[in-house]
Write a structure and sequence with these properties.
heterodimer; A: alpha+beta; Cathepsin B, Chain A; Serine Threonine Protein Phosphatase 5, Tetratricopeptide repeat; 2 domains; 7-stranded antiparallel beta sheet; about 55% helix; about 15% strand; elongated; B: mainly alpha; 6 helices; TPR repeat (chain A); TPR repeat-containing protein (chain A)
Chain lengths: ~325, ~130
């Protein structure tokens, strides 16, 4: 008898809970449809689909490796799901985690650029020809069902997004439904590009971090083209110029390195590291007077590099 | 096996720390190496050195944890090496909590009804047959 009694109470509570749930959801449902900016509506073509993105159906929990295989293949990497599973899948978690998704792209000599988490940006990338690997929570926050898929297109006339997802080669769903599932991962997603190219619409900060992470894995010799693309897009970014300078230096082009360090210091006169590197480079080139001038500037700027600049001034130039 | 692993990881940690010490202990002024883009992003030279040691410990932890989670021994080293410092930090701090994209799998029946309703409302995308 007792279990039956407990069961009924359980059901009743559940029904009430479900009722509350539905009520709350109905109230919030209207608010969740993404509003596109007017400029996006005017700028983008009404329809867009990158149909040459290959499709790999996921097996079991392996949507991470499958989604990665699609975007990597699209960028000319010869790989498949079987190769990627041991590189990115975590058996104990029955899934793949975001940092490793990004890191695995770099292992295949491509750069993963996180996108800005907005619907306008997502559609912009698709219109620009870059498929976006997105993370979704298909279920509710309380019972998460994390999922990776590849967005490949959209239709502004009937408000649908087109994905390669799970076992469905061409999964179409409404903007509002997709955005509800995407918002639960804080709208996480990234595009993949070859070193030396920078996809349209990537922010300066995201570009810098992505190129720098690639540099950690492959060295500054491998990032010169990417820094060039980055500084071409964002010529006034001091850190971009600084990254470019270090890549020139690693590629045995000290003259260009020096002028890029000077460009960094000009964009941001308070960037002590830029003055310090100008000084160190001038020292290497046996130009002590120019070195002293730059190092003095570095030594005068409060912050991380002040102490080192003072030491170099004393030890190398005997101030 | 576990003992061997514990011993090995201690040894590995020790080895990593020892090999990293010269880097950390080297007085900055003795070198005329240029400041790397990564240290500028990390934004503090001394802090970057401290973080380096911390990172090496972190990476050993991550490696251990991934092996525990069933990742192949042959693969785990390359996987951890592929992480940037920032990603390694994220992994070390929250490997347990990081969402792992897994895909569409069966939900508990108790949850079935709720998700069915939310699917129909267009808030979730669990059951393709709702459309």
């Amino acid at each position: 008898m007792k279990p039956f009694f407990m069961n009924t109470i359980y059901c009743f509570q559940n029904a009430r809970l479900a009722g509350v749930f539905i009520l709350v959801l109905l109230l919030t449902a209207c608010a969740s449809a993404p509003q596109l900016r007017d400029s996006t509506e005017q700028r983008l073509p009404r329809q867009s689909e990158i149909s040459d993105v290959p499709f790999y159906a996921q097996t079991e929990y392996q949507c991470g490796p499958a989604a990665l295989a699609m975007v990597l293949n699209h960028q000319g990497v010869d790989t498949d799901v079987e190769t990627l599973i041991p590189q990115v899948f975590i058996p104990g978690r029955e899934g793949s985690v975001q940092p490793e998704m990004l890191a695995t792209v770099r292992r295949h000599e491509r750069i993963a650029y996180p996108i800005r988490g907005s619907f306008d940006d997502l559609l912009g990338h698709l219109a620009g020809g870059d498929p976006v690997l997105v993370m979704q929570n298909l279920s509710l926050a309380a019972f998460p069902m994390w999922h990776y898929a590849v967005a490949i297109g959209y239709d502004l006339d009937d408000d649908t997004l087109i994905l390669r997802s799970g076992e469905i080669e061409r999964h179409t769903l409404s903007f509002s439904r997709f955005d509800a599932t995407w918002a639960r991962t804080d709208r996480w997603g990234f595009v993949v590009a070859k070193p030396g190219t920078l996809p349209e619409g990537i922010t300066a900060r995201n570009a810098i971090n992505a190129i720098s992470a690639y540099e950690e894995a492959h060295g500054p010799e491998a990032t010169l083209g990417s820094w060039q693309a980055m500084t071409e897009r964002y010529p006034n970014n001091a850190i971009g110029q600084f990254g470019l300078a270090n890549a020139y230096y690693a590629n045995q082009q000290p003259d260009k390195a020096l002028s890029a360090f000077q460009a960094a210091a000009q964009r941001d006169p308070q960037m002590g590291a830029a003055w310090l590197n100008i000084g160190l480079l001038q020292l290497q080139r046996d130009q002590p007077e120019a070195a002293r001038e730059a190092l003095s500037k570095a030594a005068a700027i409060e912050g991380s590099w002040q102490e080192r600049a003072q030491e170099v001034l004393e030890n190398q130039l005997g101030r | 096996m576990n003992k061997v692993r514990a011993y090995l990881s201690t040894l590995l940690i020790a080895a990593l720390v020892i090999t990293s010490l010269p880097v950390a202990a080297a007085p900055a002024s003795s070198t005329t190496d240029l400041v790397s883009t990564q240290s500028v992003l990390a934004n503090d030279s001394a802090q970057a050195d401290r973080e380096r040691i911390h990172q090496l410990l972190n990476r050993a932890d991550i490696q251990d944890e991934l092996v525990k989670q069933g990742v192949d021994l042959d693969e785990v080293e390359a996987r951890v090496a592929a992480l940037s410092d920032a990603e390694a930090q994220q992994m070390a701090n929250q490997l347990e909590e990081l969402p792992a994209g897994a895909g569409v799998v069966g939900a508990l029946f108790a949850v079935f009804i709720i998700l069915l309703v939310t699917d129909i409302l267009g808030l979730t995308d669990v059951y393709p047959f709702t459309r």
